[in-house]
């Protein structure tokens, strides 16, 4: 259901090529994320959450700069400042990192957003905005998974493995929020030019 290795590789290569050409700081950071694969933007979002000690989902410039540095984004202080001031439209000295991540996501057409939302709603059986292992039962059939067939993993372990594909490898857990799901598919979408192909891929993957 997650993107294939081939699609992920295409996304990474396309982002690396764009990274070499772009001079726009926000576009540069976007492609740094996408060069790490479909879950690159999710990884940056999690980095910001770690820094957000009080949980108010706002970052001052020092916190924002630290998040970019810890993520390994090769940006100058001036470029980070330009991105920060671009997002801090009211000049308050803080940015809402949910709004920032929304600005960072590659543009996704309305039809693509609708099909991604449809997939999320199908998986989120409890309708609480988070996909957990229990949500996948009866929705994601793992009976034909090689690791289930050979007894290497239980059904629940395969569900956890599936959920982790939407998150950075070094900071994954067994839940996926709607934001993480969308961030992931924004990345996948950036590697697919054809709307009809993206729609078919989502419908096939989630039996929509």
TrEMBL record:
InterPro entries linked: Ca-bind, EF-hand-dom_pair, EF_Hand_1_Ca_BS, EF_hand_dom
Superkingdom of source: Eukaryota
Cellular component, GO, one term: organelle
GO MF annotations in UniProt: calcium ion binding
One Pfam family cited in the UniProt record for this chain: EF-hand_7
Protein name as annotated: Calcyphosin-like protein
Native organism: Clonorchis sinensis (Chinese liver fluke)
């Amino acid at each position: 259901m997650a993107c294939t290795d081939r699609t992920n590789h295409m996304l990474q290569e396309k982002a690396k090529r764009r990274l070499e050409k772009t001079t726009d700081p926000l576009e540069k950071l976007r492609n740094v994320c996408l060069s790490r694969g479909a879950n690159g933007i999710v990884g940056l979002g999690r980095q910001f959450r770690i820094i957000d000690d009080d949980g108010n989902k706002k970052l001052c410039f020092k916190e924002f700069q630290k998040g970019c540095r810890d993520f390994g984004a090769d940006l100058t202080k001036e470029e980070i400042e330009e991105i920060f001031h671009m997002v801090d439209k009211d000049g308050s000295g803080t940015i809402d990192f949910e709004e920032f991540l929304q600005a960072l996501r590659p543009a996704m057409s309305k039809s693509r957003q609708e099909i991604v939302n449809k997939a999320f709603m199908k998986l989120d059986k409890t309708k609480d905005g988070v996909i957990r292992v229990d949500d996948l039962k009866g929705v994601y059939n793992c009976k034909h998974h090689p690791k289930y067939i050979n007894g290497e993993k239980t059904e629940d372990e395969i569900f956890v493995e599936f959920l982790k594909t939407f998150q950075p490898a070094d900071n994954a857990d067994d839940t996926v929020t709607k934001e993480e799901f969308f961030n992931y598919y924004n990345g996948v979408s950036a590697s697919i030019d054809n709307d009809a192909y993206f729609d078919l891929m989502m419908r096939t993957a989630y039996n929509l």
